[in-house]
Design goal:
Length: 348
């Protein structure tokens, strides 16, 4: 008989974290599971640590070379046999009751995918500093399971702006739905790959629900992939967004087209800004001035950011708040969400 849930764990050079991730999956209150870890060409002892577990529910697959997190997840999904597929990053972990809670709610709501809130925890900390929903803004108060449609999903996940940012969430998926629609991770995208998989699901009619309780511990660490290469990240986001907009099903949905077009404009604006800022930080002045000449609106963009830049540095250097840079890359920690985000989100 196939397991109820397949937990898939892509891993790359996370020997210090992988044991906690695997252990949290194997110690779920829902025991009818399999855990599939795909090592993506690690050069450390990640595989050795994983193979030290003797639980027969754990399967370890090894890529001989690094193919990227999307390829590793796709390989795990192909091997999965569970009714549900749950993703777990190798440096994160689950609360013991997570899978049991989500599966029960998924079956009650007839969901194709269902996500919980995330605990946000700094690497080395003993307790979370916040949750994904709490960081969406002080005006957001979600106290019941909510269904997410694709327009809401896009409108509340705009780069650098307040919102739920559900692209960071970790839903469980009905495997039958993924197979039926041929949905996999885009292996050309190595950053924000989750967001685009969720978009594929939603554009194919997935019933997506959000549970306003956190059961997933999302670890923030400086060397993780989301903290690297902001220019590469924004370039990939522009390419992926533009590509998605070319689909006929998107073009036939004016509200979705407007939401995605706005996201693309925000990505392009930030890309133009960082194409000047990054070379300045690297001391590449010729490159910086060349990019500045292409972006005459740089200073009009820089001035509103200046106070926030100073505030972050004061918090970091004078007040010792190390989190100000750790999580700002993902969430920007903006606490002033406008009411329109929440009202549009709960219209059902």
């Amino acid at each position: 008989m196939n397991p109820k849930v397949s937990v898939i764990i892509p891993a790359y050079n996370t020997e210090a974290y992988i044991a906690k991730a695997i252990e949290s999956a194997l110690k779920q209150t829902l025991t009818d599971i399999e855990v599939i870890m795909v090592d993506d060409g690690s050069s450390d002892k990640t595989v050795e640590v994983a193979k030290s577990f003797t639980d027969q529910r754990l399967k370890v697959i090894v890529n001989q070379q690094n193919l990227g997190v999307s390829a590793a997840r796709n390989r795990a999904i192909t091997a999965a046999q569970g009714e549900w597929v749950a993703v777990l990053d190798s440096d994160d972990w689950y609360a013991p009751e997570r899978l049991e809670k989500l599966v029960v709610l998924a079956e009650e709501t007839n969901a194709d995918m269902i996500a919980d809130d995330l605990y946000l925890i700094k690497d080395g900390a003993t307790s979370p500093w916040s949750t994904l929903i709490q960081e969406s803004g002080e005006d957001v108060e979600i106290d019941k399971v909510l269904q997410i449609d694709i327009v809401n999903f896009v409108e509340t996940d705009v780069y650098g702006q307040p919102g739920l940012h559900l692209g960071l969430s970790k839903p469980i998926f009905k495997r039958e739905f993924l197979v039926k629609h041929g949905i996999q991770y885009d292996e050309t995208i190595r950053i924000t790959e989750d967001f685009w998989l969720y978009m594929k699901c939603l554009i194919n009619g997935a019933r997506f629900f959000l549970v306003p309780k956190p059961y997933y511990f999302y670890r923030s660490r400086p060397n993780s992939i989301v903290h690297q290469g902001i220019l590469s990240r924004l370039n990939q986001c522009c390419i992926a967004t533009n590509s998605f907009m070319q689909q006929e099903v998107v073009k036939k949905n004016p509200a979705l087209m407007r939401a995605i077009s706005y996201n693309l404009a925000v990505f392009k604006k930030n890309l133009a800004y960082f194409q000047v800022v990054v070379p300045i930080k690297q001391g590449k002045w010729v490159t910086a001035f060349t990019e500045l000449s292409k972006n005459p609106y740089f200073f009009s963009d820089f001035i509103p950011r200046f106070n926030k830049i100073i505030q972050r540095r004061i918090q970091y250097y004078a007040m010792g708040n190390k989190l100000v840079f750790d999580m700002s890359y993902n969430l920007q920690r903006k606490r002033k969400t406008t009411n329109q985000y929440y009202h549009s989100f709960i219209k059902k």
